[in-house]
Hints:
The chain is mostly loops. The protein has one helix at 17-20.
Amino acid sequence: MTSLKIENLDLAKDLDSRAMSGVRGGTLGYYPLLPFSPVHISDTTNFSAQQLIGQTNNIVSNNGNNVAFASGLSTKINPTQTATNTINF
Length: 89
């Protein structure tokens, strides 16, 4: 029995059923190609994302407490909080 390599075939030559009956075997990625797939292949994509930001800010200013006979006491408080949720997919 002679072996046939695909690289030996001419690009313009068509093989009939008798010539193709001699071509068999082969692998796909070093594994034999099975006629069925045991795993259901689907193109469905499920995506779920949940984000939560919790912030607490407690400010106590005791400027001028326990001071007697004082004037011109001032307090400047400028609290700032920022938060961002971003999902990139």
